[in-house]
Amino acid sequence: MIDPSGPMPKYLQLRAILLDMIEDGGLPVGAPVPSERDLCRRFGLSRATVRQAVDQLVAEDRLRRVHGKGMFVARPKVRMPKELVSFTEDMRALGMAPGCRDLRARTIEADARLAGYFGAAPGLAVHVLERLRLADGEPMAVERSHIPASLAPGLFERRAPGGSLFRTLETEFGIVMDEGDQTIEAGPAGKDDAAPLGIAPGAAVFFLRQRTYSRGVCAEVAFSTYRADRYRIHLGLKSPRRSAG
Fold it and tell me: Domains in the chain: how many in total?
C-alpha cells in the first residue's frame, strides 16, 4: 500500500511496488502489467503520480509501452563491459547464453589507416574475421576483428567455427590480452549491418572501435556495431577533488 504520510514520495513508493511485481512476482519479459488507470484506482493516486512512476521505469528499461495495447515487462538492456573480457565471457557472466555466427573470414593487406592502428606500414597482412554475436539466440552485434597475420599464422584453420577468438589466440598462439582501449560513438545502422542484426537501416546503433594489446603489442583491432535498443552505457564517476585528496 501507499503510505501518504511516509518520507518517500508517492511515485517512488509506487515504483517500488511495481518492481516487486516484476521481480518478486516473477513476471517474465513481455508479461502485461496493470494500466495507469488501474494503478490510479488500486492505489488511490493521481494520474500524474502514476505517470511519473511509470515513466521512470520505462526510462530504466524495466517497462515498455506499446501504443494501443498497454504496458509490458521490458527486456533489460545489457551494460557494455568496462573490463577486458570476451563477448562470450561477458554474456555468461550476465546469465545469458552466448552465440556466434561467422559471416566472413579473409586475409587482406592493410591500408594506411588500419596499419596505423598497429603502428605498422601499409601493406601489413591482416586476418579479418566478421562475426554476428548472439545472446540467448538474439542478434546483438556485428564484430569485425583484425589480427596481424604474423602473430597468428593459420588462424582460420586453427580456430573452430563459432569458437572464441580470444581463447584461440591464447591457447593456439600464446597471445594473452592484458590491456585495451575503446572508443564508442552513436549513429545510424548501415544496410550491411542492419540485415544480420534484424533492425531497420538507419536504426540507432553504437559504433565501437577497440584496440587490444598483449605485452604492449597491439594484437587486435575490432570495429563493431551494437544494437542501441539492447545496450546501454553505464559509467562510474569520481570527483576530481576527492581523487586529489
Answer: 2
